[in-house]
């Protein structure tokens, strides 16, 4: 009951804050008339759902760029994979065909292997720790990702911790409980390897095919933040969710480096400022919004379980880290050391 009241309070706070933000918006950037010298900024992403924090982030970024550039940059947003999948959109950004996209980190790692360092299971233990890691390691990653993928990271969106969602008579509490279940996992080597370390048989399935795969029993479940689980209506075809903290789903806000370098310095600063402020905004907004979705999960009748002790999960998953050093890069072990040093720095500051 206390949990429900707390979630209700957070949800009401979010609704109030959203209403205030809507009434205090300086102007509607999307309706400002074009001028001859406007620079077009095409933003493309994979989702077409207003509920998604991806959508919130890309709209906020577009709005801030328009405002801070005094409309010298005109945003045009293409949602719902209109311009291709996330890999295709990244390739278009490299070429300068589009200027901004916001892919999942695990998908972008196919073109920017350095980002695999952020996918190591149990690298961080809390949202705050994860945010600190992103802030500290991004300056290290930016030049590497520019070289690898031709895009520049200017901000981050955090969708939340990936939770197991599935159909089963009993809850998942230990790795042994995963063995009989066919679980959908994104086609990323580290994420697939993590499931194998737990003794599971992961099944790569395209995101847009997952609902029908669950409905037809091709797989029994997968893992995603609660917003995705409910937003994609998986609650119609699964019965349980188990909460754990092995990895957070993040999306870097990336801009075409070719386009970025073509901008005058003052507009480069506008883009960087918009990225920083979008990151801050999403970090304020996301936990409030997520609380609302957990409340909706209870209302939808999903059985929500918790793994009280994740030590076995953590030990098995972390034992695979050395297997992925080469995947991260020639200096993969060194980059992992940078990441773990940052996490230790956070822990020492907050555990004194």
UniProtKB/TrEMBL annotation:
Pfam families cross-referenced by the UniProt entry: DctP
Signal peptide start-end: 1-21
InterPro entries tied to this protein: DctP_fam, TRAP_DctP, TRAP_DctP_sf
CDD domains named in the record: PBP2_TRAP_Siap_TeaA_like
Keywords for this protein: Receptor, Signal, Transport
GO CC terms in record: outer membrane-bounded periplasmic space
Parts of the chain that traverse the membrane: none
Assigned protein family: Belongs to the bacterial solute-binding protein 7 family.
NCBIfam families cross-referenced by the UniProt entry: TRAP_S1
The name this protein goes by in its record: Tripartite ATP-independent transporter solute receptor, DctP family
Taxonomic source organism: Halomonas cupida
